[in-house]
Amino acid sequence: MSKALLGIYGILLLVWATMLILLLVAGRFIVPLELPVPGTFGTVLSSIIRTILGIALALAWLYGWKKLYEAYFWRLIEALERQKER
Amino acid sequence: MELSSSIGPSLVAFFLSSISTFVLIPPTASFLRRKGIVGIDVHKASKPEIPEMVGITFPICLALSLLGALFLAPQEAFRCMLSFYLTVLIVALVGILDDLKGLGPKAKPLLTALGGLPILFLGYNPRPILPFVGATRLHYVYPLAIPLAIAVTSNAMNMADPVNGCMSGSSSIIFLTLALASLALGREDALLLACASLGYALVLFYYNRYPARVFTGDVGSLSIGAAIGAIAILGRMEIVAIVAMMPQIMNAFTILTSVGRLFERKELSERPTRLSSDNRIYASTSRRAPITLTRMILAAKPMEERELALEFFKLTAFSSILALLTALLMEA
Predict the structure, then answer these.
(1) Tell me: the pLDDT tens digits for B216-273?
(2) Fewest C-beta atoms under 10 Å: which of A51, A63, B269, B276?
(3) Chain A interface residues (partner B, CB cutoff 8 A)
């Protein structure tokens, strides 16, 4: 297998590993999060904050995945263009 | 249903699905050819015409398989099997419409999302399990996520079918992964559904592999994608399915972001790949062509069609191994 193809596997592995790290972070810090607000309002507010933080983390992960993929893709295309010029 | 008692019905579902697919595809292909429902195999120099829409057999074979398994499976499995089947059927109908009439780029994802309705109405568990987190409580968000998940999985599979056998082979690997994960996690109903789908996908691959004798059409790729999504939701293996489908999701996501909107294939001014006279497929270097996984693989190394499909399978197999590791972490 070529080194360039290996990079795609590397991206998948990295994306998976970061997903697990983010899940670990979510499990440690976001899930147990309780705001010091008493009553039903406090419970609802805590749930909303947890959901927002969870979604933000997921979006950040997706954005990182996209950036990594695109960066590697254009690197491959540039290498291909250089190859063509030669 | 006990896991040990679900293995029998799952095996029956697998064999019934395989046998019915093996028997049904050839006459369906002949019928479609007679009706002029054919597609051109663009990656062959001779540009042969291949029967399109053979994926229409998926809901038929699935019905035969699930009905057969129903005699052996306990009654509680019926609801789960029904919601799964209706999801596949709705998305298959959307696929038929798309194949025959051509749905717009916005209508297709919206209509495929309707496939989530049977799961919403017939019951689901809003507590997906995540590694390191455990069972989450998503009572408000989860119902909204179900139609979205069905739309994502079905359209992602639909967009990841660039060459002969690619979608059918990759989906076989994903169904196998879901079946193994169901075994590991003790998800009896999901095991049955995954086995029924795996039986179909493997035989479809036999007919669809290089050089393809049949094309699945949008009806096939969309409904197979919906089946993956439905198994993931009903079996509470959402994260396993996401990881197993990473190549397909990555492909769909970057196509959409690079084009910047929902679009139809024919609207593209620049193709992402081109076929050379040496029968190898090359990546386009144009900045205006969409970023696809196929183009990325070919940018690394130009390949023949068969090699490209194999590369897709290797990537799906790799992500499926990661998915199984994720399932083990969920169990832990």
Answers:
(1) 999 999 999 999 999 999 999 999 999 999 999 999 988 888 877 766 666 767 788 8
(2) B269
(3) 2, 4-5, 7-9, 11-13, 15-16, 19-20, 23-24, 26-28, 31, 51, 62, 65-66, 69-70, 72-73, 76-77, 79-81, 84
Question: Which run of H or of E encompasses B217?
Answer: helix B217-234
What the block records as the tokens of B160 is 């990841």
pLDDT for position B2: 63
Angle between helices A3-25 and B293-300 (to 10 degrees): 130
Chain B positions touching A59 (Cβ under 8 A) are none
Measured between its terminal Cα atoms, the distance across chain A in Å is 23
- Tracing tokens 């197979």 back to the chain, one arrives at B224
Q: What is the distance in angstroms between the Cα of A5 and the nearest Cα belonging to chain B?
A: 6
d(CA B164, CA B301): 18
Which of A13, A23, A76 has its CB closest to that of B296? A76
The pTM score is: 0.94
The residues, ordered by sequence, that sit 6+ positions from A44 with a Cβ below 8 Å of its Cβ are: none
Q: What is the pLDDT of residues A32-75, one digit of tens each?
A: 888 888 888 988 899 889 989 999 999 999 999 999 999 999 99
CA angle (B151 as vertex; B150, B156 as ends), nearest 5: 100
| Tokens matching residue A82 | 């250089």
State the CB neighbour count (10 A cutoff) for residue B151: 25
Best mutation target among B296, B297, B316, B329 (most A Cβ atoms within 10 Å) is B296
For chain B, positions 48-67, list CB contacts with chain A under 8 A.
none
Q: What DSSP string runs through B100-133? A: HT---TTHHHHHHHGGGHHHHHH---S--EETTT
* Entry field: residues in chain A: 86
Write the DSSP symbol of residue B55: G
Name the token pair of B199. 């039986």
